[in-house]
Amino acid sequence: MKNFTFFNPTKIIFGQGTIGALKNEIPAGKKIMLVYGGGSIKKNGTYDEIMRALEGRQVEEFSGVEPNPTYETMMKCVEKVKATGCDFLLAAGGGSVIDGTKFVAAAALFEGDPWKILKTFGSCVKKALPFASVLTLPATGSEMNSGSVITRAEFKAKLPFKSDLVYPVFSVLDPMKTYTLPAKQVANGVVDSFVHIVEQYLTQPAHAEVQDRFAEGLLHVLIEQGPLALKEPENYEVRSNLMFAATMALNGLIGCGVPQDWSTHMIGHELTALYGLDHAVTLAIVLPGNLTLRKQLKHDKLLQFAQRVWEIKSGNDEHKISEAIKKTSEFFESLGVKTRLGDYNLGEEAIEKVVAQLKSHQMIKLGENGDVNLEVSRQILELCL
Amino acid sequence: MKNFTFFNPTKIIFGQGTIGALKNEIPAGKKIMLVYGGGSIKKNGTYDEIMRALEGRQVEEFSGVEPNPTYETMMKCVEKVKATGCDFLLAAGGGSVIDGTKFVAAAALFEGDPWKILKTFGSCVKKALPFASVLTLPATGSEMNSGSVITRAEFKAKLPFKSDLVYPVFSVLDPMKTYTLPAKQVANGVVDSFVHIVEQYLTQPAHAEVQDRFAEGLLHVLIEQGPLALKEPENYEVRSNLMFAATMALNGLIGCGVPQDWSTHMIGHELTALYGLDHAVTLAIVLPGNLTLRKQLKHDKLLQFAQRVWEIKSGNDEHKISEAIKKTSEFFESLGVKTRLGDYNLGEEAIEKVVAQLKSHQMIKLGENGDVNLEVSRQILELCL
Asked: I need a surface site. Which of B40, B102, B241, B375 has the fewest CB within 10 A?
């Protein structure tokens, strides 16, 4: 196991009817900016519950945060925060709203051009407004981590940033608030969480037994509960398990002391920036090709994945590994998420464009060993056609 | 899954050579009280490393914290903290030293009789000094939780307390510092961690799939790595895995949203208070009898434990459950920890005394359903003879 530091101060308030906790958790006297997306929180009752909990408090609102939140939109929110003097942000929605709010938290107090926050991947963030979240879509883990991904539409750039200063103070997770999600978003959430785990797990052995067991446990939960959530949208236990699994998948814990890949994410980000594909869709497309191309490098962990997660007992090692990758693709497809570029009408021409974008964003040394250069990315994408 | 709140702000600094981090992690200007036990930290180099890291800082020392730290000893430390004006505590040792330091942190700022902290199980704690730990013995999980157990020798009372105010600010975990532990302490640590997990896992099904998978994963790690640590005391990877597993076993995570038992601990505490048995020894004695007596109540989870942890495939459910309990006892014995009261020259007479102590400490509604009354405790102990 490599040396590591684990620190995660976000308080998780989990369960049905917990939105009322906002009343006591947001310090008195704060002027609150409620940040949300396209209004689904109004349809499913989340907005009303929040407003009831905040009765008598000073609350401003900023709505219209899009999936893959843009710099352009979030900068409008920054202006509104400054103009209204809000000093506490409350994100209500999924990972996009929370990611966007993290950027606002940092940008509102940033001196200079806030684009620098993304250009430096967050290292220049020295202060941020406190914020919390009410999660309505389990997927990104943003509710309990310090990462954010922002898209700058005019540059077709989708860039991540990270800072210890943008952990949510607390996050409210009420599984009932996920009942009304469209099936597509539920499926995307399962795929997203699955790939978060794999990015931290399918690398090279680091003798990190706890982290491996936790990662495998989370994958088991997603494989069992994901299809159930589609079949029984109002099964509270299923929704609870998916929600907690998605949070645990990317709160730093399973990534402690192990190599991490993230090349699937970085290649996927470019597909979203160029073609507007859902984030999870890009992961479902890129992951199988990525694992296939780099299966020698990842041999030992892929074998462990085949045996412990997919419980493949027969055949030689190579067969087990191929089967495990195949079962992973089939799992995504079974949720209704197609796994080929061709399924989205993208062909050879897209590969060149993605590679050019990776180059322009300096994404030239990806993967756990930094050896996923532009040529390797190209080869991965060729396997995704 | 039941509603829950998870909050754990302790920063974990993990790996070889990490004690040097004290230099930057303890805020400048703090007057530090270093708290430790019988001096093993001087033999294994921990003391010297700490002192090097704190060169130029104001450091006072309090040594002599005993296993099962006493109120009497820790109150002396409180006096010294007050007399010297220390405003940051640094525990260096195992769970006893850290537990003792938590009490000092709360008692040093407590108005009134500090015994009340234990009488109220911590609910009366309103402030506490900040403190950190350097862990040398993986076992109790105290390095990343807010619980503490203190023994008042004059009353033969061993009582727990808990408060969000006594999370360590940070804990340094260097697995190399565990190389010189006596085999007995290593074995005790494995048993202690094992039973911590079981208290949160072997109750009734709560449809908490993530927590179950995490608990089972940790048990697998202890079963695999525990014996290896005894065979290969200087195997860094093994020591790392045990250390991280012990921390994860009791940092609140696997206990989220599930029923918790803790009757084995409460009965065990009385055995320690009365007869001075090692804490882990008392757990190894009480657990098998406890699981055996209450196996109908715990049927479903015991069966899951048998199948997923001990991988028992044959026989009917009753057989699998009996086998799982037997294998648990055998595992403790294989580490050199005897599992019968008789092994420690205790017989029938001890049972009456333990039951009387439980009564005097109001431990009359133990277990996940509060149905472990004095009569049930007596029956459990009879199975432990």
From this structure: B375
To the nearest whole Å, the CA of B88 is away from the closest chain A CA by: 20
Residues 62-91 of B with CB under 8 A from A: none
d(CA A243, CA A257): 25
In chain B the domains, ranked by start, together with CATH numbers, are 11-177 (3.40.50.1970), 182-382 (1.20.1090.10)
B15–chain A nearest CA distance, Å: 4
Interface test with B, best of A7, A213, A235 (most B CBs within 10 A): A213
**Cα–Cα distance between B63 and B180 in angstroms, integer?**
19
Chain B residue nearest residue A9, CA to CA: B9
Q: Partners of A11 in the beta sheet? A: A170
d(CA B292, CA B276) in angstroms, rounded, equals 25
Residue pairs between chains A and B whose CB atoms are closer than 8 Å: 127
Q: Which of A144, A209, A219 to mutate to test the interface with B (most CBs of B within 10 A)?
A: A209
Closest CA in chain B for residue A170: B7
Q: Are strands B4-6 and A147-152 parallel, antiparallel or unpaired?
A: unpaired
Q: Which of A151, A185, A160 lies closest to A275 in space, CA to CA?
A: A151
For residue A213, which residues of chain B lie inside 8 Å, CB to CB?
213-214, 216-218, 220-221
CA atoms within a 13 Å half-sphere pointing along the CA-CB vector of B157: 17
Interfacial B residues in 6-25 facing A (CB < 8 Å): 6-9, 11-18
pLDDT tens, N- to C-terminus, chain A (385 residues): 999 999 999 999 999 999 999 999 999 999 999 999 998 999 999 999 999 999 999 999 999 999 999 999 999 999 999 999 999 999 999 999 999 999 999 999 999 999 999 999 999 999 999 999 999 999 999 999 999 999 998 988 888 999 999 999 999 999 999 999 999 999 999 999 999 999 999 999 999 999 999 999 999 999 999 999 999 999 999 999 999 999 999 999 999 999 999 999 999 999 999 999 999 999 999 999 999 999 999 999 999 999 999 999 999 999 999 999 999 999 999 999 999 999 999 999 999 999 999 999 899 999 999 999 999 999 999 999 9
Stated pTM of the model: 0.97
Sign for the CA dihedral angle at A136, A138, A140, A146 comes to positive
CA–CA dist B109, B19 (Å, integer): 28
DSSP notation for A115-153: HHHHHTTTTT------EEEEE-S-SS-GGGSSEEEEEEG
ipTM comes to: 0.97
Nearest CA in chain B to A10: B7
List the single best residue of A1, A25, A144, A239 to mutate versus B (max B Cβ within 10 A): A1
